[in-house]
Description:
The chain has about 300 residues and is α/β, with parallel strands linked by helices. It has a domain at about 1-150 and about 185-205: 3-Layer(aba) Sandwich (Rossmann fold), CATH 3.40.50. The protein contains ten helices and eleven strands. β5 (about 105-110), α4 (about 125-135) and β6 (about 145-150) form a beta-alpha-beta unit.
Amino acid sequence: MIVITAPTGNIGRHLLSRLLESAPAAGEELRVIVRDPTRLPDEARGRVEVITGSHGDADVVDRAFEGADAVFWLVPPDASLTPQDAYTGFTRPAVKALATHGVGHVVGVSALGRGTPLADRAGLVTASLAMDDLIAGTGNGVAYRALACPSFFENLLEESDSIRERGVFTDVVDADRKAPLVAVADIAAVAAGLLLDRSWSGSDSVPVLGPQDLSPNDLARVMTEQLGHDVRYERQSLDELHATLVGYGLDKAFVQGIVDMKRAKDEGLDSGVHRTPDTTSATSFERWCAQTLKPAVLS
């Protein structure tokens, strides 16, 4: 039995689709935790067991983890909470349920940066790494793999309107700062492989990196080529970002966590992992632009 949290989110929906294809042949049953079952894809109906509720709720995870062999764990960031409450606070009930029910394997979505000088002052990343430590310390033989991810290609979808209407996307990093990025479908592919082949033990991080490091100027060049019109990068200051997010009504501590994460990324937080065939995912930015961004911008 594999339990999938956040099965309708960016990563979870890709993972659910993959497991619906491959889990039956492997003799695996699937169970999902979801707040709104109506958001599940049609292909999942009747093929997965559904536990309705939040996976931050102790009663929900207690029911969901009973009889489970493996869990996919993804914390949906809650901007109404502090980073610590949003990650470790949300995860504590699950850790108790993992130990109670003797779940053998957990695959979680986390971040790059562990072991770097920036890791202790990287805001949401620091909180995510603390969540990893909490799960890794569960005991009772629970094995854990943290998928150490950089920023997602999909973050650019939030700027589809600006790219369409003004030919502009924004961030706070230096225009020439090269760093890894990744497509969420590739994260799901790595998670599926680990959940289905549970020959691993202990706790470790698994970097999931796109094929090459790219700077904002590189992204602008590729988007220009793929979309057929000029796209340029505008750098926003950290103060501007902070003011914008506070203006949206987000928790001030959470906003500071975002700002600290962005600052750390601009200082090279994501640049310390050596790319190998095992850590390099398949989807290039060019391919992602053609398949995902272009339809969104042109819609």
